[in-house]
Write a structure and sequence with these properties.
mainly alpha
């Protein structure tokens, strides 16, 4: 298996895991005070952390023809989200909505524009 297909498989597995864990959390709280908003925000943030390095690497590769290290980009994204979470206390606009929207946009970019879903199941 090539390195790019391995990264696609790992990202696809993480997307499935994030989605099913959110579904399990939602279903386990049926009958209780079950708000959907925090679950959807957490899923959007998780998609952002998992898929931003993939999308950034694709755009960087188109311009400079170089591939960056995905784990280092993931660690940078985690530090960046923590830093913006600290800055969030000083602004009236909630910055976590940016993560939420960007996470779902990255999900659609990952699934539809790169045909990653279909390349996971091909073993060539």
């Amino acid at each position: 298996m090539e390195k790019s297909n391995l990264n696609i498989s790992i990202s696809f597995f993480l997307i499935i895991q994030i989605t099913f864990s959110a579904l399990i959390i939602y279903l386990s709280r049926i009958g209780l005070d079950n708000e959907l908003n925090p679950i959807v925000r957490a899923v959007g943030l998780s998609y952002f952390i998992v898929l931003f390095p993939f999308a950034f690497n694709n755009f960087y590769n188109l311009k400079y023809k170089k591939v960056l290290n995905i784990p280092i980009l993931s660690l940078t994204v985690i530090f960046f989200t923590c830093f913006l979470g600290l800055i969030n206390n000083y602004f009236s606009f909630k910055l976590n909505q940016i993560y939420f929207l960007l996470g779902f946009l990255l999900l659609f970019y990952y699934l539809f524009y790169n045909n990653c879903v279909f390349s996971v199941f091909s073993y060539e």
